[in-house]
Amino acid sequence: MQKKTGITRLLYAAKHSSNGFISALNSEAAFRQEFIAVSVLAILSFWLPVTALEQVLLLSTLVMVLIVELINSAIECLADQISSEWHLLIKKAKDYGSLAVLLTLLISASIWLTILLPKFNF
């Protein structure tokens, strides 16, 4: 099979990305919840008294949460495909992915608070 190149490759990549997004929304409760929260915060961010750079930082941290959640979900899918039996290494892989999501949420929250608290005199 010949490799796709140029625009064709980009179209196929966009199709696969779209399939991944739809699959994540349909089958991953954590992604769905985070996507709703990210959507609300992203819209809200346009009414906040922040500079353009702060706006980019706020939105970037939200996207970062979704990216790490998708990577965590990918790890879980692969782990579940490899074995349905309990295994210490599979448990560790899933726990590490979960920790990565938590740390990303903490980073995002701390950046949002660092930017917003001074603006509202807290």
Architecture blueprint of SSEs:
Layout lengths: L5 H22 L1 H17 L6 H31 L5 H32 L3
Relevant terms:
flat; 122 residues; mainly alpha; 0% strand
Explain this structure to me?
The structure is a single chain. This protein has 122 residues and is an all-alpha fold. It is 84% helix and 0% strand. The protein has helices spanning 6-27, 29-45, 52-82, 88-119. The chain is flat. The mean pLDDT is 96.
Sequence stretches where pLDDT stays below 50 over 5 or more residues: none
- Give the radius of gyration: 18 Å
Task: Give the helix level as a range of percent.
Answer: over 70%
Q: For the report, how would you describe the main beta sheet? A: none
How much β-strand is present in the residues? Answer: under 5%
- H and E string: HHHH
Tally of helical runs? 4
Structural class, please?
mainly alpha
Mean pLDDT: 96
Shape: flat
Task: Classify the oligomer.
Answer: single chain
What does this entry show, briefly?
With 122 residues, the protein is mainly alpha-helical. It contains four helices and no strands.
